[in-house]
Amino acid sequence: MSRALDKGIKEALKDGNHEKAFGDISAVLTQASGSLLEIELLGRSHVLEPGTSFLQDGNAVAIPKLRLVQAFIYARQTLLRYLQANENYSDRDIREATAVILLMDPEHLTAANTRKRLLTSSLPGPAKAAKILLDEKFFIDSLLTSRLHRHTKSPILWSHRRWLTEQFQRVGIATDTAEDLRSVVFVAAERHPRNYYAWCHARHLINSADRGNDQPGPDVSTVMADTKRWCYSHHDDVSGWMFLLFLLRRWPQEASSTVTETLKLAESFHWRNESVWYFIRNTMLGVQVTRQQDDQFQYVWQALRKDTQDNSQGRKVLDEASRYIEIYSRECKAFAGPVEGYDIRET
Q1: Coiled-coil ranges per the record (predicted)?
Q2: What is the reported pTM?
Q3: What does the CA dihedral 80, 86, 88, 92 come to, rounded to 10 degrees?
Q4: Which of 153, 179, 194, 245 is the most exposed place for a label (fewest CB within 10 A)?
């Protein structure tokens, strides 16, 4: 969503009840719900009844941009008065104000940091802390997974979620890493392809779970199955493949079956795109694979290459993958092990 306002909205802002819009929208953003909110912003073509600030059907919420801007103006004034200590507000008032601000502008660092301060100061013992942290997680995850282009790849929101996971660990509350990947990271990565910040957060979740914090680590088979399913469904997204390679380096026992399955799919669906073969070539060198996978690689490579034309993009990708493996396989033999650190870009 662009922050730019057209002339029609500017004119409409001169009239209207900003406080009512704020109250309605903040209430729906902070409501308790069993599933994450799916928030969508409506343009001028969607005209609502006078006095209506949003539409809701289950967990799906639609908010006109005009109403959101009205609510944002009121929320920003509230936050400024709070920060300047000119007026006293309850923690709930500020949480509602910052929620509206972050919906309008996901890069509003002051709003995010204010929420951190409120949470830190209000965290009681582990029993009551769970609800406070889970409510915050619900709100942030709803922003990250909704069809809001700027929110799904917002470094401020992903940083805030990372801070939240650290608070869960600090008070000893266990989280489900596999579920967080499935319901938050993978959804955001689908909403915004090549989502650098989402995949960085995925690595953080895996690293945190293996850090030895007296919490059960992630279920390897579940995480691997979910990640492979996502990559096979989005085979042109290199960021997903690089996360899968990250997992294989962490759990090398999964490498052989993953390479075999990927090569079979590449042959079946005629995958010649760079993302897939970038993953295959680095896996063949960066993780221990068997002679069977080497033979399978040659077979699939030849089968896909023979159907390409000279100077076609597919042939260039395949030839580059073969040339890369040929060059650096000598390094593998020289060092008697897989090559580490060769051109492994994590995008």
Answers
A1: none
A2: 0.88
A3: 0
A4: 179
